[in-house]
Amino acid sequence: MQPNPIVIATRESPLALWQARHVQALLTDLHGRQVDLLGLTTRGDQILDRALSAVGGKGLFVKELEVALLEGRAHLAVHSLKDVPMELPPEFLLGAVMVREDPRDCFVSPRYASLDALPSGAKVGTSSQRRALMLRANYPHLEVLPVRGNVGTRLAKLDRGEFDGLLMAAAGLKRLGHMDRIRQILPTSTFLPSPGQGALGIEVLAGSAQAQDIVAPLEHAQTRATTAAERAVSRGLGGSCQVPLAAYAEIDRGTLRLRALVGNQRTGEHVAVDVSGPTEDGELIAADAVAQLKSRGGLQLLSA
Predict the structure, then answer these.
(1) Under DSSP, is residue 296 helix (H, G, I), strand (E, B) or coil?
(2) What does residue 243 show for φ and ψ, rounded to 5 degrees?
(3) Helices and strands, counts by H and E, the chain
(4) Alpha carbons 83 and 130: distance in angstroms, whole number
(5) Confidence at 60, pLDDT banded by 50, 70, 90
(6) Residues designated catalytic
(7) Is pLDDT above 50 for 217?
(8) How far is CA 253 from CA 37, 107, 216, 257, 272, in A?
(9) Tens-digit pLDDT profile for residues 237-269
């Protein structure tokens, strides 16, 4: 008798479905079992006329998937880690953090080869307060405009001429086969990534040892360590997509380097820190980064 299928809850956007199908294929190979997808539409997918920061943050992308887990309709949910709230309800945990894709931002434009090539007053669209902050800090002569919708929707708006360029996550474009749309990969020295950007997180019920065992082989220890430090910075500053915050960690020969910044996305004013220490001290390194950001006026910039 065949065991019951493993069921993955997922949003129904093209990128979310790609991610879920990727996990589906891996689990099928690992366990030799049928793996089904449960597609759901979330509040974050439904509200497209307002910025996420105005309607409750990126947690809107996960709530319906969590309900499916609680009701037993799914065993696990696949998320872009940057969309997962920094504090999960006690009923849930991240059963696996998978190996990271490219964490960097990129510039997309049908006319211009780079941000530096844009003329004064050119319109650049972004769905992220973090990217808006760094655009205003590094390219104050450009007009920064909000853009919502999935990857395809945003690209269509660009192609209709609503924008001269877009800033997007490189990982999403690569996963969807749109590498040819990338004109410039933006260096982390000027466009520091969002906590968890490029990584996939698999959420399961905290009380389900079976679900935790199913996803455990997908865990990537280095990605877990770096993204945990990044997310700890965001958590320490009350972070969500309502906070223009960047945090990016790298590991080299046992040393974890964590860079972070916060600021005012309307003016581009910001403060930044660069902290390093042993990999196993990620939480302490993040706490140090948060303390330094606060001491340098980070909270005042956020409240402004």
Answers:
(1) coil
(2) -115, 120
(3) 11, 13
(4) 14
(5) low
(6) 83
(7) yes
(8) 39, 31, 25, 11, 24
(9) 986 556 899 999 999 999 999 999 999 999 999
